[in-house]
Write a structure and sequence with these properties.
The chain has 586 residues and is an alpha+beta fold. The chain has 21 helices and 22 strands.
């Protein structure tokens, strides 16, 4: 039996600077664990397919992989091809099967490999049951145990469905057919699951019965079709770029006041002088607020009670600590400059995103407006707006307070929670930076875009992007809209906000800033960039809305509705300033 570990992806996790196969889980990399398990199962002929292009690939990484396992080949076109092509490179000179094909970013137990090897069927895959309707990537449709469909574009009407977990056994009977399919030029950009979708029409491929996997301690983690967040929550490490940020987080967590420490990640072990810099924390076996909502395990009423509990903690225990004075030009420095940096990074890394960012206009869902870069100039040139956006002060903040960083334990009598992945910055940010992250989840609806629950169509022509972006209808969407309506009422009781008349406007700008700054972390380098484009377009909508709200709030009630100007261009904005200002005697 030959095993091929497909680890050539150019992607890295946000806080990591290594390929996913080298992420550490309790002191051992994923690759080390995979190699050991395969050898323990009697599989000795193993090859690792690494990548050539992407920030995470370099000579140091190759040495690390070869220290773990000597047999390695390199996919030189890893940014243009998918794991199906990586598998072809590994087997093109192999004459017969069987083989195991394993994604290089999944964590599994020995029992899962043994169940596959001992399965009576020559051709089999391992899938798992989806935990949320949001999991729609790599659906497996079964007829009893036989695979009928598999791949990234497969749909299913019946939840819960099965998700391909990135482990397949290919028997000798279909080996040559698979190799022929993989060798086709048209299939170089396809995931293995998509190629297997064609193969299963002619040959029988079976799914390992979930009952055979019950002796496993838990589900498979990670993989091309799954979220690897659980891995990050065990150990975080950075080499090179991003190292200082992780050091800030470690110091911040280590120096937390005793009264708030229990509600943040606990550092078990760390080293800020090593390369990579790292720290380890417990794996908290409790779900995030995002998962609870998207899975339908709680409704908006329960979510609002959780949020109120967390807000009480933040306003009474956190935002009252390490108070400072906000630097002059806060909005420009914290938001506008940040957006510009991230837009430039995105332009450099993706050709399609460069075309979208450089376009002069965006027509989104029927509304034509200037693009983000033009609207940033509008914000930074409005001195009165910048003055309103200047916060009264700064304080301790979490810095990344969205729903997925709120781990919630509902098993006890009271609501308990742990807040993970803080920014580690004090006396630099205002508390509305945190509030913007919350708006980011329930107002901007980032959670749905992150999980692929949206529909997108777009074209680029004559210096204009024409797009339709729609969040797909699902039960969770109604609950998010209810949270959006009711959550601001919770904040009315806090004195810090009662004394701050511009907190809502700063929160909206923070929300804009988060959306317009996060595309680099969602680039897949597949020349489609569906998620990154959706995030960008949502940012276009929100920055336009922000400017509209600012203009209308400045002169609200002083003009009849029909004289309000719809801000579609920078010229419209200047016209509105002149018209409204004149009515006020300016």
């Amino acid at each position: 039996m030959k095993a091929v570990i497909l680890a050539a992806g150019p992607e890295k996790l946000v806080e990591e600077n290594v390929p996913k196969c080298l992420i550490n889980v309790n002191g051992k990399s994923i690759l080390e664990r995979q190699i050991k398990i395969l050898k323990d199962c009697g599989v000795e002929d193993i090859v690792v397919v690494a990548g050539r292009k992407g920030d995470c690939w370099n000579d140091s990484v190759y040495r690390k992989i070869k220290n773990i396992h000597r047999k390695m080949i390199i996919n030189n076109e890893n940014t243009k091809t998918k794991n199906g092509y990586s598998l072809y490179l590994a087997i093109k000179n192999v004459k017969k099967g069987p083989i195991l094909a394993i994604d290089g970013d999944i964590v599994f137990k020995k029992e899962s490999i043994m169940s596959l090897l001992n399965n009576k069927h020559k051709n089999a895959i391992i899938s798992r049951v989806a935990t949320s309707p949001a999991e729609t990537w790599g659906i497996v449709v079964l007829d009893d145990k036989k695979v009928v469909k598999i791949g990234e574009r497969v749909k299913s009407k019946f939840f819960p469905w099965n998700i391909y977990s990135g482990i397949a056994k290919i028997g000798n009977d279909i080996f040559n057919d698979l190799k022929k399919e993989l060798s086709e030029k048209k299939n170089e950009r396809k995931y293995l699951g998509n190629v297997l979708n064609k193969i299963c029409k002619k040959h029988e491929i079976y799914n390992v019965d979930p009952d055979e996997l019950k002796k496993m301690d838990g589900p498979l983690v990670g993989g091309s079709y799954a979220n690897t967040k659980k891995v990050v929550l065990i150990r975080k490490e950075v080499t090179g770029f991003g190292k200082e940020k992780l050091i800030d987080e470690i110091k911040w967590l280590k120096n937390l006041p005793k009264d708030i420490k229990p509600h943040f990640s606990e550092i078990k072990n760390y080293n800020i002088k090593s390369d990579p810099v790292y720290f380890e924390m417990p794996y908290y076996k409790i779900p995030s607020l995002r998962k609870l909502l998207l899975r339908g395990e709680i409704d908006s009423k329960k979510a609002l009670r959780i949020l109120e509990r967390i807000m009480d903690f933040m306003f009474k225990k956190v935002y009252t600590k390490r108070v400072g004075q906000a630097d002059e030009g806060y909005a420009k420095r914290i938001h506008v400059q940040r957006i510009r940096r991230r837009l430039e990074e995105t332009r450099e890394r993706s050709k399609i995103m460069k075309r979208i960012i450089d376009a002069k206009y965006v027509n989104l869902n029927g509304r034509r407006s200037p693009n983000i870069l033009q609207l940033l100039k509008t914000i930074e040139n409005d001195q009165r707006l910048l003055k309103v956006l200047q916060p009264p002060g700064t304080s301790m903040v979490h810095g990344d307070l969205h729903f997925d960083n709120m781990l919630v334990d509902l098993t006890g009598k009271d609501i308990d929670f742990v807040l993970v992945d803080p920014r580690g910055v004090d006396k630099k940010l205002c508390l509305t930076y945190d509030l913007g992250k919350l708006w980011h989840s329930f107002y901007g609806l980032y959670d749905f875009i992150h999980d692929g629950i949206f529909e997108l169509k777009y074209s680029i022509k004559n210096n204009e992007v024409r797009a339709n972006l729609k969040i797909s209808k699902c039960p969770a969407l109604k609950e998010y809209k209810k949270i959006n309506k009711e959550f601001p009422k919770i904040l009315e009781k806090y004195d810090l906000l009662k004394k701050d008349s511009s907190w809502k406007l700063r929160t909206l700008l923070s929300n804009v800033s988060h959306f317009c700054s996060m595309m680099p972390f969602h680039l897949k380098m597949d020349e489609k960039e569906k998620r990154a484009i959706a995030i960008y377009l949502r940012g276009v909508y929100l920055i336009n809305e922000f400017i509209d709200i600012w203009l209308k709030s400045k002169w609200k009630g002083e003009l009849p509705h029909e004289t309000w100007i719809n801000i579609n261009t920078a010229e419209d904005y200047e016209k509105a300033k002149g018209l409204f200002g004149k009515r006020r005697g300016k």
